[in-house]
Write a structure and sequence with these properties.
The complex is a heterodimer of chains A (310) and B (424). Chain A is mainly alpha-helical and 310 residues long. Chain A folds into two domains: 51 residues; 237 residues, MetI-like (MetI-like fold, Orthogonal Bundle). Chain A has 14 helices and no strands. The longest helix of chain A is centred in the N-terminal third of the chain and has 34 residues. With 424 residues, chain B is of the alpha/beta class. Chain B has two domains: 189 residues, Periplasmic binding protein-like II (D-Maltodextrin-Binding Protein, domain 2); 187 residues, Periplasmic binding protein-like II (D-Maltodextrin-Binding Protein, domain 2). Helix content of chain B is 44%, strand content 12%. Chain B contains 18 helices and eleven strands. In chain B, the strands form three sheets. Chain B has a four-stranded mixed beta sheet. Chain B has a four-stranded mixed beta sheet with strand order 6-7-5-8. Chain B starts with a helix and ends with a helix. The chains are: A mainly alpha (310), B alpha/beta (424). At the A-B interface, α2, α13 and α14 of A face α1, α3 and α17 of B.
Chain lengths: 310, 424
């Protein structure tokens, strides 16, 4: 290495220290280091190693797992359990995301005005979100089981019990219902925050121009809170694509495996069936699908915003 | 080699983190064998099953006399730390992290076998309950304290009397007829449930049918040499017919294990197929009827069926342990000391001929069935009779599919296909 090439970075570093702006930039860089290191250790390295394990037949015990190349990925395409889990995850994620956001937005519109009652309602609605998904699942399974509180009440009132957790369609609907109950509080809070950023003058102007409630919502409010909608939709979708603990505690993947989600299947096959290599391959696919879905929604939302701006 | 080991170690650690949030990971230690004469003193780490009955305090109390008699040995009780709370999942993580315990209780995974010490040359181990059934290629890795009787049907004596069922059924034909009478008397004839219970009860009910004809059935099935469609087809068709006739609750899959137990003990159902551990719950329950028990009959034969049994509370020693002598002494104490064995049998509701304990009249009935039985047959559990990992979950799906509109033949075909792909 020549003298001139080594002198150049040294000079650049000296220049960086020389100005206040440079020192600010350096401080900023230094302060991001812990976050970057943590992110790398907790996210990037596991992802890379998961990728490596997905190419092996590791069962969690073997000292020297054999490389199997892309066999696991090829098997995934023909595995009926994986296809079923992908379908269930898709239904749960899409329907759950729409429902959680629709309920959150509707309630946010209803209780966004400042009042004591609304403050109380916001707290009540947000409360389920702070409870662990496992506890929520156990709680609702006690309510919805064949002889649970809801069916006992129905029978006491002279009606037949409903198969909330004992028939596949009902079990999936129950799962989605509990997802909505436990998740809408978070979207509600974000929507209320978003609604408070909509300038009152804009709403007033729309009213003066003769717009009704529905028109104001479609043409003023929703476009103004579009970034909040994007955040809520992406966060809900990503969370639901990884659904595991609620499934475990509410339905246990049943009846007859009909509510097994992708994450549930990954954990079951990895640890119950000792197939960590195959489970890693499924994890990699799920990670990629989740990433693509999140990026696609963000991209589409941004393009819609740009079109609206133009 | 060393570099690869390190990569695998790191992979294990981080995959555990990424998949379960609570796992350890990586390491693959434990291939090396410790000297059987090593470590006569020191601290022995023992990973144990923790349940509402088998608490840490219980385990401490159990090993206290051993520590007193062996002043140089301390026993450290380790609890399962895996997300599902099971000993085998915890072992998987500990082994991958190179942190295996010296002794483990309640592990059944055959994946652990390469890490275990062969105990077949120790007389006390070779004479333990079910020692022959637990052997793998002549080697013995498990020492049990007793047996858990699986193929039992508990019944409400008052319901039987009301329905005019004068004696416990001895064939499936009699059992089916009894169900009809019980249903007519307003009882749910047979209590079933969702979760793992659906499949477990099918095995409890129908294992004697296949094992009385051929005691090696489970061993052969585990090797993929048996067709469930052929051997279990008639039994599953019978089970499906019970469901169609309303002898089983069609909505039972929405019932949890604990609820099923409560429903039977509250008198709603007349019969409850379950393992012998049910006697503990029955002994504590307040009820206004008596509970009896009979062995699950065979499909077409009134001859006394072989009782299906699994090992109760088996112990294993890891060959990489450097406290081999101390571990050996501890396991010998836990599986041969009369007071220690009797205490564990009672605590875990397991049974062993020659080790009676006082719990309840129902427990005495189970002990009598075991003592008088024509033969016991090992099923699942450990050793060569254990089915491949994941079998129970796969069969459970297919049994449960009967409740959601599926048919027996399709379900059994799917289990056969799965078994062929996962033979041991």
């Amino acid at each position: 290495m020549s003298l001139s090439t080594t002198a150049r970075p040294v000079r650049a570093l000296r220049d960086l220290f020389a100005t206040a702006r440079g020192r600010d930039r350096l401080t900023g860089l230094v302060m991001t280091v812990p976050a970057v290191v943590l992110f790398a250790i907790m996210m990037i390295v596991p992802l890379v190693l998961s990728g490596y394990l997905s190419l092996t037949d590791w069962d969690g015990y073997t000292a020297h797992p054999a490389m199997v190349g892309l066999d696991h990925y090829r098997s995934l395409l023909h595995d009926p359990e994986v296809r079923q889990a992908a379908w269930i995850t898709g239904v749960l994620a899409v329907v759950g995301t729409i429902a959680v956001n629709a309920v959150g937005l509707a309630l946010a519109l209803a209780i966004s005005a400042p009042s004591r009652t609304n403050t109380l309602l916001r707290t009540v609605f947000f409360y389920p979100y702070v409870i662990s998904a496992l506890i929520i699942g156990f709680l609702w399974s006690a309510l919805l089981s064949t002889n649970g509180a809801v069916n006992s009440a129905l029978r006491a009132a002279g009606h037949a019990g409903l198969p909330f957790l004992s028939q596949p369609g009902w079990a999936l609907a129950s799962l989605i219902g509990v997802v909505v109950w436990s998740g809408f509080g978070f979207t509600l809070v974000l929507y209320i925050a978003g609604l408070h950023t909509v300038p009152a003058s804009l709403l007033e102007a729309a009213r003066i121009d003769g717009a009704g409630r529905s028109r104001i919502l479609r043409s003023v409010t929703l476009p103004m809170i579009a970034p909040v909608v994007t955040v809520n939709v992406v966060l809900t979708l990503v969370t639901l694509l990884r659904s595991y603990d609620l499934v475990l505690s509410l339905t246990g993947g049943g009846p007859a495996g009909s509510t097994e989600t992708a994450a549930y299947l990954i954990l079951a096959q990895s640890f119950q069936d000792n197939a960590l290599g195959y489970g890693s391959a499924q994890s990699m696919v799920l990670t990629v699908v989740t990433g693509i879905a999140a990026l696609a929604i963000t991209f589409l939302r941004r393009r819609a915003d740009e079109r609206a701006g133009a | 080699m060393g570099q690869r080991k390190s990569i695998n170690a790191a992979a294990g650690i981080l995959l555990g983190l990424s998949l379960t949030t609570a796992c350890g990971g990586g390491g693959f230690d434990g291939d090396s064998a410790g000297d059987p004469e090593s470590g006569a003193t020191g601290t022995v780490r023992m990973l144990v099953n923790i349940t509402p009955n088998l608490t840490r305090a219980y385990w401490r109390e159990l090993v206290a006399p051993f520590e007193k008699a062996n002043p140089g040995i301390k026993v450290q009780i380790d609890s399962p730390t895996a997300a599902d709370g099971s000993v085998d999942s915890t072992l998987q993580q500990l082994l991958a992290a190179g942190n295996a315990p010296d002794v483990v209780e309640g592990s059944h995974s055959d994946k652990v076998v390469p890490y275990l010490r062969d105990l077949s040359k120790l007389n006390w181990a070779a004479n333990a309950p079910m020692a022959d059934a637990q052997r793998l290629d002549g080697h013995l890795y498990d020492v049990a304290i007793g047996q858990q009787v699986q193929s039992l049907v508990f019944y409400n004596k008052e319901a039987f009397t009301k329905a005019g069922v004068t004696a416990p059924p001895t064939t499936m034909r009699e059992l089916t007829a009894a169900m009809g009478k019980l249903k007519a008397s307003g009882y749910l004839p047979l209590q079933t449930a969702g979760e793992w219970v659906t499949q477990a009860q099918v095995i409890m009910l129908f294992a004697p049918t296949v094992t009385t004809d051929d005691p090696e059935w489970f061993k052969q099935a585990a090797r993929g040499e048996r067709s469930l469609s052929t051997d279990l087809g008639p039994s599953m068709n019978l089970y499906k017919s019970w469901l169609d006739k309303g002898y089983l609750d069609k909505q039972a899959l929405g019932t949890k294990y604990a609820e099923a137990e409560t429903d039977f003990l509250s008198g709603k159902a007349a019969m409850y197929p379950m393992g012998c551990w049910f006697v503990a719950a029955e002994a504590q329950a307040k009820k206004d009827f008596k509970v009896g028990v009979f062995p699950a009959p065979q499909l077409n034969d009134s001859a006394t069926p072989r009782l299906s049994v699994t090992p109760g509370a088996n112990y294993r020693i890891f060959k990489a342990s450097n406290r081999q002598k101390a571990s050996e002494k501890l396991v010998q104490f836990l599986t041969t000391d009369h007071a220690a064995v009797a205490s564990q049998l009672k605590q875990d509701s397991s049974f062993r001929t020659g080790y009676p304990y006082k719990l309840s009249p129902l427990a005495d009935d189970v002990q009598k069935l075991l003592d008088d039985s024509a033969g016991h047959q090992a099923i699942v559990g450990s050793g060569a009779y254990q089915m491949p990992a994941g079998f129970e979950a796969e069969q459970n799906k297919q049994v449960q599919s009967l409740y959601t509109g599926g048919d027996a033949a399709t379900g059994l075909n799917k289990v056969d296909t799965w078994l062929k792909a996962h033979t041991r």
